[in-house]
Amino acid sequence: MKQNLSTGIYGWLYRDAFLKGMKKNNFHKVSGAQLKQEYKAIISNAKDIGKSRMMSAYCMGAFFIAAYHLNENAEENYRIFRDGLEQSRIFKAALGNADAYLSEKKLAGRREWERESHKKLYENEWVVDVIAGGRDFALGYDYHECGICKLCADEGCFEIAHYLCRLDFLLAEMMGMKLTRTQTIADGADVCDFRYAKKSE
């Protein structure tokens, strides 16, 4: 995949958060320069996913793989990344909040994304069914294919994909939402069943 403005911005954002987590955890095994170089190598080797809505997640996966190449302790990397993301004001601002994310005005665009995803134009793209909100949740996704799992498999480290799944709960919390999920592709299921609700619901 070609390096572009999006991959560069996301790479900087995740590296900045990881460095914050390194400081909090007194971790000195790798440097920011090493993370940057390895991330660029993963992105350059990654299969293209076009102008995907999931580019941020794909780059997050690439960054976590880069960190794993430099420090093969995925649990330690997860703690560092989690702590850094929690401390990053820039990342929190970029995420937005529950009201914006769950707005019904976005449903039409999500339906178009769903239709496009089922065309499978890019090998490593996600394939999703969008689930309109019901009594127990405001928005749901059933992912039948996961780009992060594919990228981890391509890099020979599928076993670390579930750490990125764990971060989904943190991201929901940071946005003021509750995520309910019973299964993931990373853990061997056929589908990842995301259900989001506002915390107050």
How would you explain this protein's 3D organization?
A hairpin with a 6-residue loop joins strand 1 and strand 2. With 201 residues, this protein is of the alpha+beta class. The model has no long low-confidence stretch (mean pLDDT 96). The termini are far apart. The chain has 9 helices and 4 strands, in the order αααααααββααββ. It is 54% helix and 12% strand. Helix 1 packs antiparallel against helix 2 (32-45), helix 2 packs across helix 3 (55-70) and helix 3 (55-70) packs parallel to helix 8 (147-154). It has a 4-stranded antiparallel β-sheet with strand order 1-2-4-3.
Short description, anyone?
The chain has 201 residues and is of the alpha+beta class. The protein has helices at residues 5-24, 32-45, 55-70, 74-87, 89-95, 98-101, 107-117, 147-154, 161-174; strands at 127-132, 139-145, 177-180, 192-198. A four-stranded antiparallel sheet has the order 1-2-4-3.
Topology:
Layout: H1 5-24, H2 32-45, H3 55-70, H4 74-87, H5 89-95, H6 98-101, H7 107-117, E1 127-132, E2 139-145, H8 147-154, H9 161-174, E3 177-180, E4 192-198
Antiparallel strand pairs: 1-2, 2-4, 3-4
Q: Describe the biggest sheet?
A: 4 strands, antiparallel
Helix share of residues? 40-55%
Q: What is the helix tally? A: 9
Poorly predicted spans: none
Radius of gyration, CA atoms, in whole angstroms: 16 Å
Strand line-up in the sheet with most strands: 1-2-4-3
Q: Summarize model confidence as the mean pLDDT.
A: 96
Order of helices and strands: HHHHHHHEEHHEE
Structural class: alpha+beta
Number of strands: 4
Strand content: 5-15%
* CA distance, first residue to last residue: 41 Å
Estimate the global geometry from the Cα principal axes.
Answer: globular
